[in-house]
Design goal:
Blueprint (H helix, E strand, L loop, with lengths): L7 E5 L3 H12 L3 E6 L5 H10 L3 E3 L11 E4 L8 H8 L4 E3 H6 L5 E6 L4 H19 L3 E5 L5 H4 L8 E5 L2 H5 L8 E4 L14 H9 L10 E5 L3 H10 L6 E7 L11 E5 L2 E6 L2 E7 L11 H16 L4 H10 L8 E6 L2 E5 L6 H10 L4 E6 L11 H7 E7 L3 H8 L4 E4 L3 H11 L5 E4 L12 H13 L4
Parallel strand pairs: 1-2, 1-4, 2-3, 4-5, 6-8, 6-9, 7-8, 9-10, 10-11, 11-12, 16-20, 17-18, 17-20, 18-19
Antiparallel strand pairs: 12-13, 13-14, 15-16
Helix pairs in contact: 1-2, 5-10, 5-11
Length: 465
């Protein structure tokens, strides 16, 4: 455990993770100051008052710089003036994940990637919950998926497991974080507005998840992903940790890797030095709300992570059989007058949007848009032309979406989600689907993708037949 007693610490950003890490550090004996550019909510200000932690809001003052180290919230880019000034002074800058790691006694499974990390993390947590119920340990689900790591870390014991979903933003400030198992689901263009338009910059941040792993640790990666396949083919000999690749299709395990998790002949199969064994048939875990090639990959990743920590096959099978997906990820909402309505608010980039278009059967009315991340929407023009009858574009990206898809589908615009839902109701025909899959971030109109998804479901359930 890192000794922070008497250290002066500035926490930049006073949302969930910022408040949680401030409380953790204060309890550990640090002198904490919180600085928020915007306005604190009632809960945040009340919590800081209760903890007797001083704070400022509405801007950053010189008080920020009176610190031995700073902790930065994931939503704050390194390019903003206050962060540049901190770095120029040579003050160490850490993420909330890094700080919580200093206090963590539990085994850690860290999961990152562009898409699939929430579903994979949820499924991994379910597997370890199932196993822990019989083996006498607890599984915690923290990080980008829900509760901040900092808010739960002091409750964790050495026999427990922390399943941590990690965004690239959270990995940026890690200097010692070392998971027992690291998982990379895939890497496709996302957040390029933050990474100078360069996919390699984004990928290198993701690769930080395994950078400090050693011989007792394991890296799990998607061998179907071209970038990951090439990267690890070139760098495998430099890795100190064990590796378990996963992918769709039977593989011949090469000399550099004796383990693997594959999907072939409609089965999940496990490779090891002892040979190949079949785990579960697809019919036992692929359901209406958990279908598609991407969810097969998510299941393979979860199985590989469980295997890395020696979880028995029965616990894995049980969790897979019971799993029906996660909220806001291709979530079935209702059937109305012969049309299905699907909430895919978790689709915050065009790759996730493409996955939804490929997975949802038949023709559809698509509601998409939000805050653009510098994406090229024409990359998925083929599947849009094939599957979409009408596109209802919303948010800051609506004009860019109109420009990308005009001439191939009928494009309408809406000034609000309520208007978009009403428009989709008028356009959809029996047998078609209304798919809400924004392909953009939510922060132009909503608090987060969860808020966006909940509002879509409320509006949808309020429609009358």
């Amino acid at each position: 455990m890192m000794d922070v007693t008497g250290k002066k610490v500035t926490v930049l950003g006073a949302r969930r993770s910022g408040i949680a890490v401030a409380e953790l550090l204060s309890e550990a004996g640090a002198s904490v100051f919180v600085s928020e550019l915007g306005t604190l909510g009632a809960f945040e200000s009340a919590r800081l008052h209760a903890l007797q932690i001083p704070y400022e809001e509405g801007g950053h003052t010189e008080n920020v710089f009176a610190a031995d180290f700073c902790v930065i919230s994931p939503g704050i880019p390194r390019t903003v003036a206050v962060v540049r000034a901190i770095l120029e002074k040579g003050t160490p800058l850490f993420s909330e994940i890094e700080v919580a790691y200093w206090f963590c006694k539990a085994r850690i499974i860290g999961i990152t990637g562009t898409d699939g990390k929430t579903t994979t993390a949820t499924l991994v947590h379910r597997i370890f919950e199932t196993d822990g119920n019989t083996q006498g340990y607890r599984a915690f689900s923290v990080g980008n998926i829900g509760q901040p790591f900092s808010s739960m870390v002091l409750a964790m014991q050495p026999e427990d497991v922390a399943v941590i979903e990690l965004s690239s933003y959270q990995l940026e400030g890690c200097t010692s974080f070392r998971p027992d198992v690291s998982v990379i689901t895939n890497i496709t263009p996302d957040h390029l507005d933050r990474y100078e338009g360069e996919l390699l910059n984004y990928a290198q941040t993701k690769f930080g998840i395994y950078a400090r792993q050693g011989k007792d640790d394991t890296l799990v990666y998607n061998d179907d992903d071209p970038l990951l396949h090439d990267h690890f083919a070139q760098n495998r000999d430099n890795l100190l940790c064990g590796i378990i690749p996963f992918g769709i299709g039977c593989r011949t395990t090469d000399a550099g890797c004796s383990s693997g998790v594959w999907f072939c002949d409609n089965m999940i199969v496990l490779d090891s030095e002892a040979g190949r064994e079949c785990l579960i048939d697809a019919e036992d875990f692929l359901k209406r709300s958990f279908r598609g090639r991407h969810n097969i990959s998510n299941a393979l990743a979860a199985v590989a992570a469980a295997r890395a920590l020696g979880i028995g096959n029965e616990a894995v099978r049980s969790a897979l059989q019971d799993f029906t997906g996660v909220e806001h990820r291709q979530e079935f909402v209702r059937t109305l007058d012969g049309s299905d309505w699907i909430n895919d608010s978790k689709a915050t980039n065009i790759n996730a949007l493409c996955q939804a278009l490929q997975t949802v059967p038949g023709r559809m009315v698509l509601i998409a848009g939000g805050r653009d991340k510098g994406s090229d929407y024409r990359e998925i023009a083929g599947i849009v032309r094939e599957k979409v009858t009408f596109l209802v574009a919303i948010g800051e990206a609506r004009e860019k979406l109109c420009s990308a898809y005009s001439g191939m589908v009928d494009v309408r615009t809406a000034g609000s989600l309520e208007e978009a839902v009403s428009t989709a109701r008028q356009l959809v025909e029996p047998g078609q689907t209304v798919l809400f899959s924004p392909g953009c971030s939510s922060f132009d109109m909503f608090e987060d993708f969860e808020d966006r998804g909940r509002q879509f479901k409320t509006l949808t359930m309020g429609l009358l037949s």
